[in-house]
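Person: I keep going back and forth on a fold encoding question. Show me how you would write down a chain together with its backbone fold. Please set it down just below, with no commentary around it:
Helper:
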Amino acid sequence: MHMWDGDCGSIPVRSEAGLPVGIVRDGDIAVAAALPRKTLREITTGEASDGRTVEGRRSVDSIDSVLLALMLSHGRRLPVVDGGGHLQSSPAGCQRTPLIR
């Protein structure tokens, strides 16, 4: 419901310390729901995420460094973090994005 309520296609996943540990996309949830015999409410964030390590970028980083990080990680999204690595923003297009733990 977080994605529906926030009108977004992905949600950053953070550790208890507020550091990004993953991103769950709507497509990840669809695939996770199709594979095991569980209801959507029973599927955990870890089961739905793509398992890739997330490396955030600061808002002052160059576009070149962001594109390089995306290319090297084969990712589609990178969270924006502060100097300490803590999440700072929601994905583009989201009205309200909770940070799932």
Q: What stands out?
A: The longest helix spans residues 63-73. The beta strands are 10-14, 20-25, 57-58, 80-81. Residues 2-81 form a domain with the CBS-domain fold (CATH 3.10.580.10). The two ends are 15 Å apart (CA to CA).
